[in-house]
Amino acid sequence: MKREWKMLRWLLATVCVVAVAVRVEAKEPFRYPEARYGQGELRYINQVPVLFVEGTPEEIGTQVAELGLKPSRQLLNYPKDVLHHFSAGFSWKLFVLAGKRLERNFPDDYKRELDAIVQAGVDRERLVTANTMFDVVKLIACSSMIVQPDRSATGKPIFGRNLDFPTAGYLQEYSIVLACRPKGKYAFVSVGFPGLVGCLSGINEKGLCLAVHEVLEAGDGSKKYDPEGTPYAMNYRRILEECATVEEAEKLLRSLKRTTRNNLAVCDRSGGAVFELTPQRVVVRKPADGLCPCTNHFCTRELAPEKVSNRVYTCDRLDCLVKNGNHHKKLGLDAIKKMLHEVNGGDMTLQTMIFEPADMKLHVALGSCPSSALPLRKLDVVELLSYRPMQSDSTPSSPRVPESGR
Asked: How far apart are CA 203 and CA 213, in angstroms?
């Protein structure tokens, strides 16, 4: 009996150890595997996952699928998971239908890129829905601050940004930096997720950077949603691929068909502004006293509603940014990071970044929420966009590490 009792205790202890090990393993965060495929490569630079892709739309799509999406297949469950998170799983088919309709408006190059991702073995319905559901339902609640040269501690523009988004418990683990060299267009670096054909935050080879903020209300009675428009993230990628200045971005924006209401914060090497956008209008909001804060409501006379509702604390966050900005004669990276952390959205803040467009630097914090509490990792945009894999194969290897990773 004594021997049996000892054996039972041993078995129970073993089960407990295994159970603990399983729980620890289950909590282990996702990590992208380093690998190469064709002219593409995924590797870590200064502890940040960077996906390098280049070429034609078909080549870029295949590289994204093989290096980014296939290792992170849970990402394709996200659109359904986030609907279930808000007890709206019943509406999935409506989003699928809306996505199919918007797919007809995709620019040709982006449609070819998406087709290549599908041909590599990715489910089309979920991929299209993931690229269009932002336009159909408002999910993003972001904050940013553009600092003009006269208010900057560096004497050059600085542009900080939080991306706030429901994570369904895991989206934050799949954030990635994409360094993209599309054939015949400006190269750019974006912060997002594999399979997102458009761009939510990014900077191009000319130093033009941007970040989107969704908006719920408009004072001019404009449409909330136009199914004849182009998905906004794709429009914003076009800006990075075709424009070098804020003025060029404005001109292109006015020519594009837009699906919904947004604030688009844009900054180049000399300074920035916020474009307040509806399907019908583009209104430019310029900096005041050298600062241009932005959250999720319109502020211009043309588009601001008579009374702004404080949904997702948009007014509180803007007031906080203005108040903290006015406390500094000059703002540097540390002050801006602190400001972004003070307006973080807790477990919704999954990406924090600061652009220095004149110096072509990107400081980024990814991995857990709130990302604003994490250390910023510095990346050299010029090095990222000039980097080439040493080999062109699909096997992992260890080529030269760019300077910013040393």
From this structure: 16
Which positions of the chain have pLDDT values less than 50? 1-25, 392-406
Q: Side chain identity at 334, as an amino acid letter?
A: D
Q: In what order do the strands lie in the sheet with 282-285?
A: 35-37, 40-45, 48-55, 176-182, 188-192, 201-204, 209-214, 262-267, 272-277, 282-285
Measure the CA–CA gap between 61 and 37, rounded to whole angstroms.
Answer: 11
For residue 345, count CB atoms less than 10 angstroms from its CB and return exposed for 0-12, middle for 13-18, buried for 19 or more: buried
Q: What is the largest CA-CA distance in the chain?
A: 86
Between the CA atoms of 256, 260, 261 and 265, what dihedral angle is there, to the nearest 10 degrees? -50
For residues 177 and 90, is the Cβ–Cβ distance under 8 A?
no
Q: Could you identify the residue written with the tokens 């509603």? A: 305
Give me the CATH code for the 35-390 domain, please: 3.60.60.10
Task: Collect all residues with Cβ–Cβ distance below 8 Å to 14 and sequence separation of at least 6.
Answer: none
What average pLDDT does the structure give for the chain? 90
* Whole-structure pTM value: 0.89
The answer, yes or no, to whether the previous bond of 370 is cis (omega within 30 of 0) is: yes
CA–CA separation, 267 and 370 (whole Å): 24
